[in-house]
Amino acid sequence: MKEIYLDNSATTRVYDEAAKIAFEVMTEYYGNPSSLHSKGVEAEKIMEEARKNIAEALGANPEGLYFTSGGTEANNLAVIGGALAKKRRGNKVVVSAYEHDSVIKSAKQLENMGFSVTYLAPDENGIITPLSVFEAVDEKTVLVSVMMVNNEIGAINTIKEICAAAKRKNPEVLFHTDAVQAFCKIPIKAEKLGADMVTVTAHKIGGPKGTGALWIKKGARVLPNHFGGEQEKQLRPGTQAMPLIAAFGKAAEIEAASMQARKESMKTLERYLKESIKDVDGIVLNSKEGALPNIVNISVPGIRSEIMLHYLENRGIYVSSGSACALGAKSHVLAAMGYDNARIDSAVRISFGRDTEKEDIDELVAAIKDAMSELCR
């Protein structure tokens, strides 16, 4: 049975080139980048080359890029560390209601610390509008966090305009964007975005799990969540995960170079899938027009997401019921969109990758039709 992997928003297959460099660092260039001898200097050179490659793909200055254990830690550092650094100026935080759990739960933690948090719902098109952010920000607001691309429905937010609106209302506010699903999918120029902090991670772009980065604009202040060393300018102390970081840099280099061609391929696949399901009674499209083409979210009311997921898995097709980090919990993203329980409970996220072909979509649609015939009896 052919394996059809359509869960690339959860994680991606690592590039061979990235896996190779990770192995080489583990077995040949294994020095600690903080060591002063030649093996350490050798390792540091590899790490800084990776930092440079990632920063270039992000359109950012490498001096502002700090390595973390992944997107979750980077988001925690940005939201909690950013808010605490500004707490003398105010106690209000604004985030979108459909952020990744790592932002939502960081905001909940801030509430436990005495901060007031405003959660902004997306509009009917699934986006956070600059106006809604402008209206939510006030003189007590210290931080705003709005994701660049939603991880479940693919909605693309106009971060430059949203950030400008927030800072027009309060120039002192720190602005963070989770760009995990956007990185190397759409062009990003972090230095011109207006945001103070941008989160990226490796395993969504053909790199390994276990490493990510937070880019911080020069002049923005963030308090560390970890303590114990001089690494990453004391903002994220601890010995860097060198093999993973080297692989991250290689994956970013490859993805950035092929981004435009891959974007066109994703658009073709998205159109093909939508055309294939448009006349199938019982399938509801949750992703809106203009969303990232890599992500298509659908519902089949009457078949619970988990049942559909395992039915497809038995056919060798791998999709998701939502964010992998939520471990099957009810989607707060679709709830924020205002969808009813029947639609939320039957949602399936299909996310394309560099290996996806039209034939895979044919197999997927055929399997969904069979599921509707067999499971809805």
Strand content: 5-15%
Low-confidence stretches: none
Largest sheet: 7 strands, mixed
Kindly provide the radius of gyration, computed on alpha-carbon positions and rounded to a whole number of angstroms. Answer: 21 Å
Structural class: alpha/beta
Euclidean distance between termini CA atoms: 27 Å
Give the overall pLDDT as a whole number.
95
Number of helices: 12
Describe what you observe in this structure.
The protein has 12 helices and 12 strands. It has 377 residues and is of the alpha/beta class. The strands form 3 sheets. The protein has a 7-stranded mixed beta sheet, sandwiched between helices. A 3-stranded antiparallel beta sheet has the order 9-10-12. The longest helix is centred in the C-terminal third of the chain and has 36 residues. The two termini are 27 Å apart. The model has no long low-confidence stretch (mean pLDDT 95).
Which helices and strands, and how do they pair?
Layout: E1 4-5, H1 16-27, H2 38-58, E2 65-68, H3 71-85, E3 92-96, H4 101-112, E4 116-120, H5 130-136, E5 141-145, H6 159-169, E6 174-178, H7 190-193, E7 197-201, E8 212-216, H8 242-277, E9 284-285, E10 295-299, H9 305-313, E11 317-318, H10 332-336, H11 341-344, E12 347-351, H12 358-375
Parallel strand pairs: 1-11, 3-4, 3-5, 5-6, 6-7
Antiparallel strand pairs: 2-8, 7-8, 9-10, 10-12
Helix pairs in contact: 1-8, 2-8, 3-4, 5-6, 8-12
Task: List its traits.
alpha/beta; 3-stranded antiparallel sheet; 12 strands; 13% strand
